[in-house]
Design goal:
The complex is a heterodimer. The model of chain A has no long low-confidence stretch (mean pLDDT 90). By secondary structure, chain A is mainly alpha-helical. In chain A, strands 1-2 form a two-stranded antiparallel sheet. Chain A starts with a helix and ends with a helix. Chain A is built from 15 helices and two strands. Chain A has one domain: Orthogonal Bundle (ABC transporter involved in vitamin B12 uptake, BtuC), CATH 1.10.3470. Chain A is globular and about 65 Å long. By secondary structure, chain B is an alpha/beta fold. Chain B folds into two domains: 169 residues, Rossmann fold (3-Layer(aba) Sandwich), CATH 3.40.50.300; 58 residues, no CATH class. Chain B has a six-stranded mixed beta sheet, with helices on both faces. In chain B, strands 2-1-4-5 form a four-stranded antiparallel beta sheet, covered by helices on one side. In chain B, a hairpin with a 2-residue loop joins strand 1 and strand 2. In chain B, 42% of the residues are buried. The model of chain B has no long low-confidence stretch (mean pLDDT 92). Chains A and B meet through helix 8, helix 9, helix 10 and helix 11 of A and helix 2, helix 3, helix 4 and helix 5 of B.
Chain lengths: 347, 255
């Protein structure tokens, strides 16, 4: 058996193992554990697709919350039944044709992804005219525009009231299925000639152009693919939480994603996965610090938001002591793992 | 072909400053021409106008009968003009091999989704460009470093990798911006031999900027001299060495 075939088998085996674990959780796990696992998968999808733009292309894009919002609303509007829509839109009725459209969950997810991609395409022309801090500001602006629109366009989004009572379609299979597909597709892209061109732009845009790489084309490609998967993840998120409103998709969401990919290691897909998993699990585990604590001598009442303080401290520690995050730009590979195992057997 | 490569009255003004004024030159296929001049004379500006990094205020760049003035950089590369950079610009965090493979991208016929789904055609192409990139590395004596990060190479190796990367875009005209900068006499000698060899093997036309006079005089068949953006002389190395205007530009006027 050659090396490539061994790796393919190992990949398939680990995906099989993952789904076996998920199966066990779906049978025997508590609702709380399943909830955390679902969250983890959605954040992995978001982080991996966000990392494609920020880590691989080296662009500081601060508007993924716009893509997630569009994906979530598109998907939610397609799965709600006409009766539900009538009940939900009490102030301003939902505009035609959204009030009659209805689609199965999988179609709604794809539609969410495609709408996010379309939006990304429209904003890409102003966005990629600038670079660096300016690009960050422009994308931040578009993220905010979408949130404001979600608040204001009551006939489409139901405004600040949001959408309630979505059916909880998102289960472990959907969320992890999408996460696995995203990881595979984006990893393949990164390791391809297209991915190399993106990294070349990150390393030195002037030299990349001189070697025949069209920066706009490649940044656009990364941006659109990232938007697509973020939109799909938005649809999953909507049907996981079952209630969406504009407050869910503020810059805070972008900020969390940024923390995830920076802590994981900017430019590493493995890092994005680890960062997202730590974030989803850690966010729950750290709930302890928000509970009232009794130290005998003194008591601390529960402080809501204490988790964010801890997160910020972790981020600062990472920036000080591990500037390039957990993984740096390195990726997990079977070669590396097999080499490690081989060495420990000998030693 | 009369119009292989012709620059016609190139003018570059930055606000009130004229960096290059009325620069014209004609290169025949297979020629090895040098561009010299004191620091700040506008040599790199000429290269930047040719490769599309700067849009000349006036004048034209004619390449194989086609007007290239104002063409985007990556399109110029596609047409067969490649360059290296005075201040080395490698993709430091990519490996040596990947640096060269980037240059193949523009000619690659595969779409991104073929890569995302790992289709057979994509895998064949990837295999092919990997092998060809290795050939270029072999030619420049860098094959043993293929897996290293480009940023970790020694200075002379980085300069050679820049040339390998430019060659991999399959140019007909190669612009070398101070290829010998920072090299010791022995390395400079080897570089001159390498440039000659590459010209033969890839049937290149070479236009180069260099400060090392021994290198330029020994290598180039024809030399153009710039001073304060104005072309002051053109001729064979022997003619240039005797030219009073050139001596004045480099050494100043005798009192």
């Amino acid at each position: 058996m050659n090396n490539a075939r061994v790796k393919l088998l190992l990949n398939l085996a680990s995906i099989g193992l993952l789904f076996l674990i998920l199966y066990l959780f779906s049978r025997y796990g508590t609702e709380y554990q399943i909830r955390i696992l679902n969250n983890m998968a959605v954040f992995i999808t978001l982080a991996v697709s966000y990392n494609l733009v920020n880590g691989i292309c080296g662009i500081l894009h601060l508007g993924p919350n716009a893509f997630i919002t569009i994906g979530a609303y598109t998907s939610a509007l397609l799965t709600m039944s006409a009766a539900e829509k009538q009940m939900t839109y009490i102030i301003v009725p939902l505009v035609w044709p959204l009030n009659v459209l209805h689609a199965p969950f999988v179609v709604s997810l794809l539609a969410g992804g495609l709408m996010a991609t379309l939006f990304a395409f429209l904003i890409s022309f102003p966005v990629f005219r600038v670079r660096g801090d300016y690009l960050a500001i422009v994308t931040l602006g578009f993220g905010e525009v979408i949130r404001v629109l979600a608040n204001a366009l009551q006939g489409v989004t139901n405004g600040p009231l949001g959408l309630k009572g979505l059916l909880p379609y998102t289960n472990l299979w959907w969320s992890w299925g999408v996460a696995v597909v995203t990881i595979i597709a984006i990893t393949k892209l990164i390791n391809s000639s297209h991915g190399r061109a993106m990294k070349a732009i990150r390393e030195d845009e002037v030299a990349a152009r001189a070697m025949g790489v069209d920066p706009f084309k490649h940044l656009l490609l990364a941006f659109l693919i990232s938007a697509f998967f973020s939109g799909v993840a938005g649809g999953l998120l909507a049907h996981l939480i079952t209630t969406i409103s504009p407050t869910l998709f503020t810059f805070f969401l972008t900020f969390n994603l940024l923390i995830i990919i920076v802590v994981g290691g900017l430019g590493s897909t493995t890092g994005a996965v680890l960062g997202a998993a730590l974030f989803a699990w850690g966010g729950e585990a750290l709930r302890i610090v928000e509970r009232p604590m009794d130290f005998g001598l003194f008591k601390i009442p529960g402080i809501p938001g204490m988790r964010m303080v801890i997160f910020s401290i972790i981020l600062m520690l990472v920036i000080i002591f591990a500037r390039r995050g957990i993984m740096g730009r390195a990726e997990f590979s079977w070669d590396w793992l097999l080499a490690r195992l081989g060495r420990s057997e000998k030693g | 072909m009369n119009d292989f490569f012709r620059l016609e009255g190139l003018l570059m003004q930055f606000g009130g400053l004229t960096a290059v004024n009325d620069f014209s030159i004609l290169l025949q296929p297979g020629e090895l021409v040098g561009l010299i001049g004191p620091n700040g004379a506008g040599k790199t500006t000429v290269f930047n106008m040719v490769t599309g990094f700067l849009n000349p205020t006036a004048g034209r760049v004619i390449w194989q009968g086609e007007d290239l003035t104002g063409t985007p950089v990556h399109k110029v590369t596609e047409r067969g003009i490649a360059r290296t950079f005075q201040n080395i610009r490698l993709f430091s965090d990519l490996t040596v091999l990947e640096n060269v493979m980037v240059s193949f991208h523009q000619r690659l016929g595969t779409y991104f989704w073929e890569a995302m789904f790992s289709l057979p055609r994509y895998r064949r192409e990837e295999h092919r460009i990997r092998a060809q990139a290795m050939d270029y590395l072999q030619e420049l004596g860098l094959a043993h470093l293929a897996g290293e990060k480009a940023g970790g190479l020694a200075y002379g190796q980085q300069r050679r990798l820049e040339i390998a990367r430019a060659l991999a875009t399959r140019p007909k005209l190669l612009l070398l911006d101070e290829p010998a900068a920072g090299m010791n006499p022995q390395e400079t000698n080897e570089l001159a031999q390498l440039v000659r060899k590459l010209r033969e093997r890839h049937s290149l036309t070479i236009f180069l900027i260099e400060h090392d006079m021994k290198f330029v005089m020994g290598l180039c068949e024809r030399i153009k001299v710039l001073d304060y953006g104005i072309s002051i002389a053109e001729g064979t190395p022997a003619e240039i060495q005797r030219n009073p205007a050139v001596i004045k530009a480099y050494l100043g006027e005798p009192k």
